[in-house]
Amino acid sequence: MAIFAKLKAKLFGVKNDKYDQGLKKSRLSFTQKLKALSSKHKIVNQEYFDELEEILISADVGHKMASKIVSEINQEARKRKISQSAEINNIIIDKIFAIYTDEEVVSTKLNFNDKGLTCFLIVGVNGSGKTTTLAKLAYKLKDLGKKPLLVAADTFRAGAVEQLKLWSEKLDVAIQMPIKPQQDPGSVVFQGLEQALKNNYDVVLIDTAGRLENKVNLMQELNKINKIIKQKLGHEPDEVLLVLDATTGQNGIIQAQEFEKIVPVSAIVLTKMDGTAKGGIILAIKEYLDLPVKLVGLGEQATDLEEFDLEQYLYNLTRDLFTGADDE
Ligand SMILES: Nc1nc2c(ncn2[C@@H]2O[C@H](COP(=O)(O)OP(=O)(O)OP(=O)(O)O)[C@@H](O)[C@H]2O)c(=O)[nH]1
Ligand SMILES: [Mg+2]
């Protein structure tokens, strides 16, 4: 059975509103373009495949990934002697699914420390959504019955500490703040970890600055924070979450490569998926970075953070392609 039919059978009735709403722009753009392509070329030819590749690239799938997907679709179509473009849509989803999973199960579960305090360090360029993601995560953890502690280690940007403090009040979650203005971020992290250990918190969530005076300083700062965590806990952070803004497109890949040189990034959080029509960035991340996307931001509220679910993602990105075709 084709993947889409399987997904539909599995997900039918368990509609995930966050994915449904959050991927609306991407879905409209993707299906509109694919439908237009199928009506332009009823029978597939080279031009059809070239245009299909363009559509994937325009959805931020990335050149390499787009060309891989198209070449596999082309092969499969030949093998199955499919010449009608409308029939190709099924293969597109099958191939995307197969390429993303690479026949293996991709883990999207956050890594918790089963021996003691769990530490999540949040990094990313300014404005990517770090502080908001941290708040959303705290909300999720609290909902799971865990005791999270927010650590306001962005002492560089004016208003950053205050922003996190407002979230902490809104969500009723504890926060470690700097004791004095412009305090060294490393020492705020140190104090946060001390407090968490002393008062039996389950998870510390460390917010960091997205920009300092220059890139070297930012690197040194993150390096230092990471060292302090290692010294204090005896191990690396359980997750170093790199926050990428989905609306920045391929630029995000370059940012990730830069951050990976500084800290041991363990996973990606892709924010603002609701604000982009280019949901294909997830596939580009798979192609260029050997990092799992573990969380997606689908709005500005505390509840708008979801574990990345490939099945929900693909289903909600493509389901309009098949409306009306179901009963045929
Ligand atoms: N629509 C939408 N907006 C988001 C999402 N995540 C964050 N934002 C918004 O993006 C803006 C920046 O978010 P912040 O969390 O302050 O970003 P930051 O990375 O902490 O920024 P700096 O502290 O300046 O480095 C805010 O207006 C957020 O509400 C999301 O998933 N969807
Ligand atoms: Mg911030």
Outline the structure in words.
The protein has 328 residues and is of the alpha/beta class. 51% of the residues lie in helices and 12% in strands. The chain has two domains: 15-105, Four Helix Bundle (Hemerythrin (Met), subunit A) (Up-down Bundle), CATH 1.20.120; 118-308, Rossmann fold (3-Layer(aba) Sandwich). An eight-stranded mixed sheet has the order 3-2-4-1-5-6-7-8, with helices on both faces. The chain is elongated and about 70 Å long. The protein starts with a helix and ends in a 10-residue tail after the last helix. Magnesium ion is lined by residues 130-131, 154, 160, 207.
Order of helices and strands: HHHHHHEHEHEHEHEHEHEEH
Number of strands: 8
Number of domains: 2
Q: Determine the number of helices (DSSP H or I, runs of at least 4 residues).
A: 13
Class inferred from helices and paired strands: alpha/beta
- Helicity range of the residues? 40-55%
GO molecular function: GTP binding; GTPase activity; signal recognition particle binding
Protein name: Signal recognition particle receptor FtsY
GO biological process, one term: SRP-dependent cotranslational protein targeting to membrane
Membrane topology: Peripheral membrane protein
